[in-house]
């Protein structure tokens, strides 16, 4: 081996040794890091630990879960509606062309107010037939009176009197039918008697309220029985709630209800249950419960608004804690339960337990769905917010 070859071999050997040394140090560091992390995780405390002095300093008070007589509530969802008698579809009895619409959507109207006018050529024929029947009735009535007088005087025949009487009754019924037909179309028969024949009839509001959606335009032809608009009276608005089978036995007529308007910044209104259906809705095993609304503040309530309701079903002995003992985190509700550990002296350990809350009354809130806790379990009655902030801070540090 010459000198140049030897130098190259020696340089390559030194590079390989250096690389192996660096790789070994890196692997060792990575292994040590994992071991340290595992050791740290093993040492993380499960829950919060405070000394008696710390609890006294921050004002944490512990005690048992109380049993309080609180108003029990049932939660139900539903929407606002109006009774059938307070909502009207404005339909026409006879087809025709809309000549004029006198109102706009959202306008307040009174019962009997003009909403639109409809042109109908058949209306002219009805009026002509009515006038013809009235004129003919004059002769029929005179003949009937004459035959009646002859019958009473014993000078007429019974057959002639019966024939005139039948004709008289038939013509009178015919005139009555024409008058009823004209009245239904909003035309006064007395006006027709004076020779004032009209080619259009009015459409009048059947109830007082607010004009809803108008589904026809001026100049459109509408068939008989077609609804061209609706009128809604919101003064009698009520709420239809869905109560499920498991809660149905606790719901009764006369119970108080508190409503939250779901999509209206959770505005609160109150009401009273006034009716309970006696059949299930479809396959949901839910029953519709009707509640009248106390709207003294004249809030703008519209049929179809969604509500969340709390139905008060009376006082019951239930588990309750002070309002300050419940904290919220990530959309859930928790209380802090005391875990006693004798081997740690004066240290008290707390852990979070998820709960659901019910009615709030006299500074206490009803709690449900507790974990399986012994009857002697103590919780943080005051200072739960401090524990929550400490728990959050600990999570960030970790």
From TrEMBL:
<dbReference type="InterPro" id="IPR058626">
    <property type="entry name" value="MdtA-like_b-barrel"/>
</dbReference>
<dbReference type="InterPro" id="IPR006143">
    <property type="entry name" value="RND_pump_MFP"/>
</dbReference>
<feature type="compositionally biased region" description="Basic and acidic residues">
    <location>
        <begin position="26"/>
        <end position="44"/>
    </location>
</feature>
<feature type="region of interest" description="Disordered">
    <location>
        <begin position="24"/>
        <end position="44"/>
    </location>
</feature>
<feature type="domain" description="Multidrug resistance protein MdtA-like beta-barrel">
    <location>
        <begin position="237"/>
        <end position="314"/>
    </location>
</feature>
<keyword id="KW-0813">Transport</keyword>
<dbReference type="GO" id="GO:0016020">
    <property type="term" value="C:membrane"/>
</dbReference>
<dbReference type="GO" id="GO:0030313">
    <property type="term" value="C:cell envelope"/>
</dbReference>
<dbReference type="InterPro" id="IPR058625">
    <property type="entry name" value="MdtA-like_BSH"/>
</dbReference>
<keyword id="KW-0732">Signal</keyword>
<feature type="domain" description="Multidrug resistance protein MdtA-like barrel-sandwich hybrid">
    <location>
        <begin position="87"/>
        <end position="232"/>
    </location>
</feature>
<dbReference type="Pfam" id="PF25917">
    <property type="entry name" value="BSH_RND"/>
</dbReference>
<dbReference type="GO" id="GO:0060003">
    <property type="term" value="P:copper ion export"/>
</dbReference>
<protein>
    <submittedName>
        <fullName>Uncharacterized protein</fullName>
    </submittedName>
</protein>
<feature type="signal peptide">
    <location>
        <begin position="1"/>
        <end position="20"/>
    </location>
</feature>
<comment type="similarity">
    <text>Belongs to the membrane fusion protein (MFP) (TC 8.A.1) family.</text>
</comment>
<dbReference type="InterPro" id="IPR051909">
    <property type="entry name" value="MFP_Cation_Efflux"/>
</dbReference>
<dbReference type="GO" id="GO:0022857">
    <property type="term" value="F:transmembrane transporter activity"/>
</dbReference>
<dbReference type="GO" id="GO:0015679">
    <property type="term" value="P:plasma membrane copper ion transport"/>
</dbReference>
<dbReference type="Pfam" id="PF25944">
    <property type="entry name" value="Beta-barrel_RND"/>
</dbReference>
């Amino acid at each position: 081996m010459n000198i140049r070859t030897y130098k190259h071999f020696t340089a390559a050997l030194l590079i390989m040794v250096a690389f192996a040394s660096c790789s070994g140090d890196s692997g060792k560091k990575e292994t040590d890091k994992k071991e340290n992390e595992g050791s740290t995780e093993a040492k993380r405390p499960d829950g919060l630990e405070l000394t008696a002095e710390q609890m006294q300093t921050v004002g944490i008070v512990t005690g048992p879960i109380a049993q309080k007589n609180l108003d029990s509530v049932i939660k139900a969802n539903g929407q606002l509606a109006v009774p059938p008698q307070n909502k009207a579809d404005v339909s026409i009895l006879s087809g025709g062309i809309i000549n004029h619409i006198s109102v706009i959507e959202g306008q307040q109207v009174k019962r009997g107010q003009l909403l639109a006018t409809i042109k109908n050529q058949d209306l002219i024929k009805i009026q002509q037939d009515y006038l013809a029947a009235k004129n003919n009735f004059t002769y029929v009535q005179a003949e009937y009176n004459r035959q009646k007088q002859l019958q009473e005087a014993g000078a007429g025949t019974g057959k002639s009197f019966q024939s005139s009487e039948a004709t008289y009754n038939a013509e009178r019924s015919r005139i009555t039918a024409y008058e009823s037909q004209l009245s239904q179309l909003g035309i006064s028969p007395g006006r027709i008697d004076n020779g004032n024949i009209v080619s259009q009839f009015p459409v009048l509001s059947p109830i007082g309220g607010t004009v809803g959606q108008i589904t026809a335009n001026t100049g459109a032809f509408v068939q008989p029985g077609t609804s061209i608009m609706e009128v809604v009276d919101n003064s009698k608005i009520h709420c239809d709630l869905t109560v499920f089978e498991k809660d149905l036995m606790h719901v009764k007529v006369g119970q108080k209800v508190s409503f939250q308007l779901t999509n209206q910044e959770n505005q609160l209104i109150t009401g009273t249950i006034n009716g309970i259906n006696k059949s299930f809705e479809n396959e949901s095993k839910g029953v519709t419960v009707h509640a009248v609304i106390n709207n003294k503040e004249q809030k703008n309530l519209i049929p179809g608004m969604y509500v969340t309701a709390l139905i008060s079903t009376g006082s019951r002995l239930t588990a309750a804690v002070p309002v300050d003992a419940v904290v919220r985190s990530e959309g859930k509700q928790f209380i802090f339960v005391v875990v006693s550990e004798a081997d740690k002296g004066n240290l008290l350990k707390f852990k979070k337990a998820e709960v659901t809350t019910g009615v709030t009354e006299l500074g206490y809130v009803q709690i449900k769905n507790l974990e399986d806790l012994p009857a002697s379990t103590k919780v943080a009655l005051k200072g739960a917010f401090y524990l929550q902030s400490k728990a959050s801070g600990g999570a960030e540090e970790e």
